[in-house]
Design brief:
Elements lengths: L7 E8 L2 H11 L3 E8 L2 E10 L8 E6 L12 E9 L4 H10 L6 E5 L2 E7 L5 E6 L21 E9 L3 H9 L2 E7 L2 E6 L7 E6 L13 E8 L2 H13 L8 E2 L3 E7 L5 E9 L24 H7 L6
Parallel strand pairs: 1-4, 5-8, 9-12, 13-16
Antiparallel strand pairs: 1-13, 2-3, 3-4, 5-9, 6-7, 7-8, 10-11, 11-12, 14-15, 15-16
Length: about 300
């Protein structure tokens, strides 16, 4: 069994409009944009990161806004809901705030005794705010969100699968333990990790397979402390038969990727070096940061990217 994984690192989704998704996360949800860079494989597309003050692993939602791409189709084989944690008692504030800003899909719910507010993002993304213990996390309080209600980071993520058993076995190998089941959803939790320590598996045996597009999660990333731990995880996965990519330098972390039995793309990302490697904390997310190989083409890249000076 793998012992190096520490919970979630980040979740990466796709969007149709950079300005719209940027406004949603900074102005509606009050998160901080901690990095403005580009897709390493398509430098005419932003890669935008939102989280707490420093982009702590377990707090960061990232986006590829691919222009006017069509919306994804919901189904199995995807991250169905991305869950953010808020302090206990914060949901009435969020219900009023999101309603006033015209956010769609608002729905009160609960799971395993935790109150939650589900809502939709600009491209039909599925999100939930979950009331839970703060666990020493400090929210970023942008756009007038009070500290007592601010988003603390991720609570977890809910994967929707036609058959949950193979992914449940994988999570067990990755160090997650089966927690509780309510209805068609079973929670898995990792011990001694960060506060983003839950993954829920929801079984949809008769649903169609999801098709990715705007509003779809591209991949979900799990955290390890450093590159040495990452190499241990990579070896363990490959020894078990998974096809894992070589280590890829993403400037702010190193990454490996593999496809799960349920069709969801998993990433293992390092906590090092962090988002302050090329910007001081006070100015995170303000300047466009490019991978070294794209610096000679900065003028051309900047000319095609939409303005996100705010």
């Amino acid at each position: 069994m793998i012992k190096e994984i520490k919970g979630l690192h980040h979740v990466t989704s796709m969007a149709a409009d950079a300005g719209q998704i940027n406004a949603f996360f900074t102005e509606t949800l009050g998160l901080r944009r901690v990095k403005k860079t580009v897709n390493f494989d398509a430098p005419d597309v932003y890669h935008l990161y939102y989280g707490d003050e420093i982009g702590t692993p377990g707090s960061v939602m990232t986006y590829f806004p691919f222009g006017q791409m069509p919306r994804g189709k919901r189904g199995t084989g995807e991250v169905g809901v991305t869950e953010f944690a808020v302090a206990k008692g914060a949901l009435p504030y969020w219900k009023e705030r999101l309603g006033a800003k015209g956010v769609r899909g608002l729905r009160d719910d609960s799971f395993l005794g935790e109150p939650r507010l589900e809502f939709s993002g600009p491209d039909g993304d599925s999100f939930a705010l979950v009331e839970t213990a703060t666990r020493d996390r400090t929210p970023w309080t942008g756009a007038g969100v009070p500290e007592e209600a601010g988003i603390l980071g991720f609570h977890g993520a809910r994967l929707r699968l036609r058959d949950a058993a193979p992914t449940a076995e994988l999570l067990g190998f990755m160090g997650y333990q089966k927690d509780q089941t309510e209805g068609a959803v079973t929670r898995y939790r990792i011990e001694a990790g960060n506060a983003a320590d839950t993954v829920d598996l929801e079984e949809w045996p008769d649903a169609e397979t999801a098709a990715q597009g705007a509003g779809s999660v591209h991949h979900i990333a799990f955290a390890v402390e450093d590159r040495a731990a990452q190499l241990e995880v990579r070896k363990a996965l490959m020894d078990t038969g998974f096809q894992v990519t070589p280590v890829i330098d993403r400037d702010y972390f190193w990454a490996i990727y593999f496809c799960t039995p349920g069709g969801v793309l998993f990433e293992i990302a390092t906590n090092e070096p962090g988002f302050d490697r090329d910007e001081d904390t006070a100015h995170l997310g303000q300047a466009l940061k490019l991978p070294t190989r794209y610096e000679p083409h900065r003028a051309k890249i900047e000319s095609v990217l939409p303005d996100l000076s705010a």
